[in-house]
Amino acid sequence: xxxxxxxxxxxxxxxxxxxxxxxxxxxxxxxxxxxxxxxxxxxxxxxxxxxxxxxxxxxxxxxxxxxxxxxxxxxxxxxxxxxxxxxxxxxxxxxxxxxxxxxxxxxxxxxxxxxxxxxxxxxxxxxxxxxxxxxxxxxxxxxxxxxxxxxxxxxxxxxxxxxxxxxxxxxxxxxxxxxxxxxxxxxxxxxxxxxxxxxxxxxxxxxxxxxxxxxxxxxxxxxxxxxxxxxxxxxxxxxxxxxxxxxxxxxxxxxxxxxxxxxxxxxxxxxxxxxxxxxxxxxxxxxxxxxxxxxxx
Length: 297
What we know:
This protein has 297 residues and is mainly beta. The protein contains three helices and 20 strands. It has helices at residues 2-27, 83-88, 286-289, and strands at 31-39, 48-56, 59-66, 78-82, 91-98, 110-117, 120-123, 139-144, 160-162, 164-165, 171-172, 174-175, 183-191, 194-201, 224-226, 245-252, 263-269, 280-281, 283-284, 292-296. The strands form four sheets. Strands 3-2-5-6-7-20-1-4 form an eight-stranded antiparallel sheet. Strands 8, 9, 12, 15 and 18 form a five-stranded antiparallel sheet that branches.
């Protein structure tokens, strides 16, 4: 009798526990699948990755990390997300995060965003949660000159590029929107396939943050650089910039690459017969480099 009572007690407890456990599972949030389809992103190297975020009641919820290979293919395109969060999300955002990241919140470097309309979010850099502008109205011009070369050698005058308009007093040569935190503009001269930076900047009227190639004299209070000193490997200074390419890119901050980032809103080819101190315009290239995508739930 004693053994039978114990057996009945065990069966009773097991049954209650099993039913209780089944009830808990029935009440657990169900995961749903979020699918992302993005083109135009680039490989960030070993130190950084992309991360997706749902915005639910104004707060970010991570959907997971992904990388992009040299061909632009995403390492992952489907993510399991709590169904309640996915259903309630009003926006999707893509940020750039350190690979070793102890901060659970998104970084300031947000590259794509878009509101959900039904079950789809169309992503762009122009979304207010990303850069807030698609750069299609950006415009620019530059001159060739070497104002920091104190010896006045006219032969070097086509070895520097400055983003200013000499006919305006001088005035700024660039028309660019203010960038949000986490981003900065950078000027480049591409010489024989090698990009050489003129420095990063956030204002078109003011000096940029670098003058590592310029001479000893002061340059004008605009972004630009004389290519006279500290030439990078593969380039010899002074350099004749005729037939080079002049580029304005948008760079994440911090930036772990010595090459221009994928966002290149302005590009200009220096004419073969270019003269120094003459204003040359740049082409708007935003449509060719802006990443785009969609997210579906």
